[in-house]
Automatic annotation (TrEMBL):
<comment type="function">
    <text>Methyltransferase required for the conversion of demethylmenaquinol (DMKH2) to menaquinol (MKH2) and the conversion of 2-polyprenyl-6-methoxy-1,4-benzoquinol (DDMQH2) to 2-polyprenyl-3-methyl-6-methoxy-1,4-benzoquinol (DMQH2).</text>
</comment>
<comment type="similarity">
    <text>Belongs to the class I-like SAM-binding methyltransferase superfamily. MenG/UbiE family.</text>
</comment>
<keyword id="KW-0949">S-adenosyl-L-methionine</keyword>
<dbReference type="InterPro" id="IPR023576">
    <property type="entry name" value="UbiE/COQ5_MeTrFase_CS"/>
</dbReference>
<keyword id="KW-0808">Transferase</keyword>
<dbReference type="InterPro" id="IPR004033">
    <property type="entry name" value="UbiE/COQ5_MeTrFase"/>
</dbReference>
<dbReference type="GO" id="GO:0043770">
    <property type="term" value="F:demethylmenaquinone methyltransferase activity"/>
</dbReference>
<feature type="binding site">
    <location>
        <begin position="138"/>
        <end position="139"/>
    </location>
    <ligand>
        <name>S-adenosyl-L-methionine</name>
    </ligand>
</feature>
<feature type="compositionally biased region" description="Polar residues">
    <location>
        <begin position="1"/>
        <end position="17"/>
    </location>
</feature>
<feature type="binding site">
    <location>
        <position position="110"/>
    </location>
    <ligand>
        <name>S-adenosyl-L-methionine</name>
    </ligand>
</feature>
<keyword id="KW-0489">Methyltransferase</keyword>
<feature type="binding site">
    <location>
        <position position="91"/>
    </location>
    <ligand>
        <name>S-adenosyl-L-methionine</name>
    </ligand>
</feature>
<comment type="pathway">
    <text>Quinol/quinone metabolism; menaquinone biosynthesis; menaquinol from 1,4-dihydroxy-2-naphthoate: step 2/2.</text>
</comment>
<keyword id="KW-0474">Menaquinone biosynthesis</keyword>
<dbReference type="GO" id="GO:0009060">
    <property type="term" value="P:aerobic respiration"/>
</dbReference>
<dbReference type="GO" id="GO:0009234">
    <property type="term" value="P:menaquinone biosynthetic process"/>
</dbReference>
<feature type="region of interest" description="Disordered">
    <location>
        <begin position="1"/>
        <end position="25"/>
    </location>
</feature>
Length: 266
């Protein structure tokens, strides 16, 4: 693990998809689609994968995503007096980790009702409902008051958002002064020797697993492609600064396969 940011310039593909430009297109994996078309297309992906999402996460990452999420939750710093808004929280891993770690009230939000439904069922099974709220919400337009939460998290969700700058602006808006935003997302591999193996796994194995387990190869092809079109470590850190976050930090995990970005609202 490393806390360093790769200083190499971003490629055009890596900078795509941030900021609103009227009439512009958005990336949907390697495809360019009208901006207004991306959300329903992403929603269809997660409607399809929701029933097998947690199982596929284990298979796709060989279970490593669980270690990444434990590190992420620890970085959030759960405390009984702090509240969490979990954006694109899907089936609830981050919210549940926060509550198990002693955090205060949490809101599990997602734009996709199918994913949130799986999270709600899991919460009932874990008896966590008392401290956990559920909100179907677009992370680009949150139905949450200004300066109302202490932590905002998003794990493996930002790359699926159409206007990433709007998500960051909303996260800052709803944070109290002294609050912190953290993002866990796939990023750019920092260890050259890992790249061929990682690419082979992403583009040859994952779609086949998707087909075999979830009956949907295309959605997992999109997910693999969406990682490559997402802003790299340095570019995303710059986006956090542009959104007004202070003391922005980056922590690479597993050689940069994933990274945690963080920033404070002063």
């Amino acid at each position: 693990m490393s806390d360093n940011i790769d200083s190499r310039p971003s490629t055009p593909q890596q900078t795509a998809g941030s900021g609103y430009r009227p009439g512009a297109s958005a990336d949907f994996g390697y495809r360019s689609v009208p901006r207004e078309a991306k959300k329903p297309m992403v929603r269809a992906v997660f409607d399809s994968v929701a029933p097998k999402y947690d199982l596929m996460n284990d298979l796709m990452s060989l279970g490593i995503h669980r270690a990444w999420k434990r590190i992420f939750v620890s970085a959030l710093g759960p405390r009984p007096h702090l509240s969490l808004l979990d954006l694109a929280g899907g089936t609830g891993d981050i919210s549940f980790g926060w509550l198990r770690g002693g955090g205060g009230p949490a809101i599990l939000s997602d734009i996709n009702e199918s994913m949130l439904g799986v999270g709600r069922e899991r919460a009932l099974g874990n008896a966590m409902v008392a401290k956990l709220g559920f909100v179907v919400a677009d992370a680009e337009r949150l139905p949450v008051p200004d300066r109302s939460v202490d932590r905002v998290s998003i794990a493996f969700g930002l790359r699926n958002c159409t206007d990433k700058d709007a998500v960051l602006a909303e996260a800052r808006r709803v944070l109290r002064p002294g609050g912190r935003f953290l993002c866990l997302e796939f990023s750019r591999v920092q260890v050259a020797a890992l790249t061929p193996l990682y690419d082979a796994w992403s583009f040859r194995v994952l779609p086949r697993l998707g087909s075999m387990i979830a009956g949907d190869a295309a959605s997992y092809q999109y997910l693999a492609e969406s990682i490559r079109t997402f802003p790299d470590q340095e570019r995303l850190a710059g986006m956090l600064r542009d959104a007004g976050f202070a003391r922005v930090g980056v922590r690479n995990l597993s050689g940069g396969i994933a990274a945690i970005h963080s920033g404070w609202r002063l």
